[in-house]
Design a protein that fits this description.
Length: 381
């Protein structure tokens, strides 16, 4: 616990008692966050066993559901944490086991907000994977799910939304009067990489950052900037004469930038879905005689399975994939030798502290100072 953590727990600055509702989609993450908060509170002289508030969303045999909070939330600074991408949660529906979709998780979130009955001091929703976030703009006659969802939460009395690495954070324009924080766990990623890859050399001569496409340019520019290394990028050449699965198919990935020969490569993106694009980028760079290839995605979900990545690892095309614990990871993924987990629970606990005590979160959002300290620790700067 840092000095700032202890100061934040002073009774003079606390807006209201903390209460955390961890939906069944984030049980593991919620317990970790609660562990940090309870430890810090005890060090500050406040004895509490847990900040977690028990709840459930039972369903009738017809599939109808309801939200139930099992203790009072009156006057509580309520933080509700949900992972709308957790497809491992199932419920009975006419005798069948039905996997919960993002729509189901979002509906349960609204049920719990309803169950609070407006009695909480304030409601903050921590939704790492922003619901509907991939549909961030309208082309032709299309829905804008994320914008409507944010407006719905605002109308229900939610004060703040905290998400991580939104596909396009400009969706917050739909709710300009509501708190909206899009957090990038850059420091946590670098810390995990330095800790888990023992022989990593982040010098300009040995290391390079590459953006997988123009959409990921800003996040990769930040990594290159704080590390002081060169950066390259790919752009996706698409076939605009046809549409497959709602999108113009990618014909090729074209590389622009400095030579990568002999350098370890780091590529950051918001999501690894099927993983085809990331593997194409890795193959392209290996053909240019790059060294080791490390990929990072805030949400490594591998919708098409792990087999292609297993083969790429065996063939030396990829050397490691980093992903956060902000969304569901299968036991199979966690057992893979090429997968490295980035724990973001302490970061979220800091966020809860800061919001609860109505202090600026600018230092939490901008991790530049912590990254500088980390690099000095490993003798890089």
């Amino acid at each position: 616990m840092t000095a700032s953590s202890e100061n934040l727990f002073s009774s003079e600055s606390s807006a209201a008692p903390i209460g955390i509702i961890a939906m069944n989609s984030v049980t593991e993450l919620g317990n970790k966050i609660d562990g940090y908060l309870t430890d810090w509170s005890k060090l500050a002289g406040y004895e509490t066993d847990s900040f977690l508030i028990e709840c459930e969303c039972p369903r009738f045999s017809s599939g109808d559901g309801k939200g139930l909070i099992k203790s009072t939330v009156r006057g509580i600074d309520l933080f509700i944490i949900v992972d709308v991408g957790n497809y491992s949660i199932k419920y009975d529906y006419f005798g069948m086991q039905n996997a919960m979709s993002p729509d189901d998780h979002f509906q349960d979130l609204k049920r719990i907000i309803q169950a609070a009955s407006g009695k909480a001091h304030r409601i903050t929703v921590i939704m790492p994977t922003l619901y509907g976030g991939r549909q961030h703009r309208r082309n032709y006659r299309e829905s804008l799910d994320c914008a409507c969802a944010l407006q719905e939460l605002e109308a229900m009395g939610v004060s703040n939304i905290v998400c991580f690495d939104a596909h396009d954070p400009r969706v917050q324009n739909a709710v300009p009067l509501m708190g909206f924080d899009n957090v990038m766990p850059t420091y946590q990623v670098l810390k995990a990489m330095m800790k888990q890859i023992n022989d990593i050399d982040l010098s300009k001569e040995k290391f390079m950052v590459v953006s997988p496409d123009e959409g990921a340019l800003n996040r990769n520019m930040y990594y290159a900037s704080v590390l002081g290394v060169d950066m390259g990028m790919f752009y996706k050449r698409r076939d605009y004469s046809q549409i497959i699965n709602g999108r113009n198919p990618i014909v090729a990935h074209e590389y622009i930038g400095n030579p990568v020969e002999g350098k370890d490569i780091f590529v950051a993106d918001d999501i690894i879905s099927s993983g085809e694009s990331m593997l194409d980028v890795a193959k392209n760079l290996k053909e240019k005689n790059a060294g080791r290839f490390f990929a990072y995605a805030t949400y490594a979900i591998f919708t098409n399975g792990l087999e292609k990545f297993d083969k790429a690892y065996e063939d030396g095309i990829i050397d490691g994939v980093f992903g956060t614990n902000l969304t569901y990871r299968t036991p199979e993924l966690l057992s893979r030798p090429w997968f490295h987990e980035v724990d973001v629970s302490k970061y979220i606990a800091y966020f809860i502290e800061a919001i609860n005590h109505d202090v600026s979160i600018s230092k939490i959002i901008d991790p530049h100072t912590k990254i500088e300290t980390l690099l000095k620790k490993y003798g890089i700067k």
